[in-house]
Amino acid sequence: MNVLGIDIGGSGIKGAPVDTKAGELLEERLRVPTPHPSGPDEVAGVVASIVKHFGWNGPVGVTFPGVVVNGVVRSAANVDRSWVGVDASRLFGGATVLNDADAAGLAEVRFGRGRGLKGSVLLLTFGTGIGSALFTDGVLVPNTELGHLQLHGKDAEHRASARVRDEHGLSWEKWAERVEEYLRHVEMLFSPSLILIGGGASKKAEKFLPYVHLDTPVEPAALQNEAGIIGAAHAAAARA
């Protein structure tokens, strides 16, 4: 089944048609900068432009960087706070809407490095914030939002996200120290069998993962920054 997947992030909104059986993009993805302000109307305008760009009239899956319950947004840490309480599914014309990291995790467990694994698998996306998707024997525990765990009195994503590395000009090795500290915290809480690193940072995993040392295996996500698009489409296909 072919589905249009759209991944809303704090810095960019990306979309492409997806072959949900193969877990592959059918066309080159389109990326549009996230508007500022990033309220519902502004973001909906970008989503509509992506749908129009691909001439799409079939099912659509959309990710959102926050807690989403039955299509309704319950939190919005890295986009405008006016999203809280919005029925995003209705706003996007009946699209399937889910948390962005959950979508990336679904793609990785269905098509990537997490495929067929038993036990607990934790995907963490490092980008504007830190997203999380937790799976037990392939079953998703939705909306975990582990980027908001507290480290040194602040949300972990305000200390260890990829955005923080850029803003503070941290070397890859110095940033890896912060990432390892955060990963040790989640390792202690969940004792996962595998931790996968996704989001924009996954494309440069070789620059920092060699400096990260845990008892739990830590690997870059296979689908990298396309995972959200593929996972959103996969979730929509499952509902169709």
Can you describe this structure?
This protein is α/β, with parallel strands linked by helices and 240 residues long. It has two domains: 2-103 and 226-239, ATPase, nucleotide binding domain (Nucleotidyltransferase, domain 5, 2-Layer Sandwich), CATH 3.30.420.40; 116-225, Nucleotidyltransferase, domain 5 (2-Layer Sandwich), CATH 3.30.420. It contains eight helices and 15 strands. It has helices at residues 40-53, 88-91, 100-111, 157-160, 162-168, 172-190, 205-208, 227-239, and strands at residues 2-8, 12-19, 24-25, 30-33, 60-64, 68-69, 72-73, 96-99, 120-126, 130-136, 139-141, 150-151, 154-155, 194-198, 218-220. Strands 1, 2, 3, 4, 5 and 8 form a six-stranded mixed beta sheet that branches. Strand 10 and strand 11 (139-141) form a beta hairpin. The radius of gyration is 17 Å and the shape is globular. The model has no long low-confidence stretch (mean pLDDT 96).
Which regions contain 5 or more consecutive residues with pLDDT less than 50?
A: none
Number of strands: 15
Question: Could you tell me the radius of gyration in angstroms?
Answer: 17 Å
End-to-end Cα distance: 10 Å
What is CATH's topology name of the largest domain?
Nucleotidyltransferase, domain 5
What order do the helices and strands follow? Answer: EEEEHEEEHEHEEEEEHHHEHEH
**SS summary, helix count:** 8
Mean pLDDT: 96
Which CATH architecture of the largest domain is right?
2-Layer Sandwich
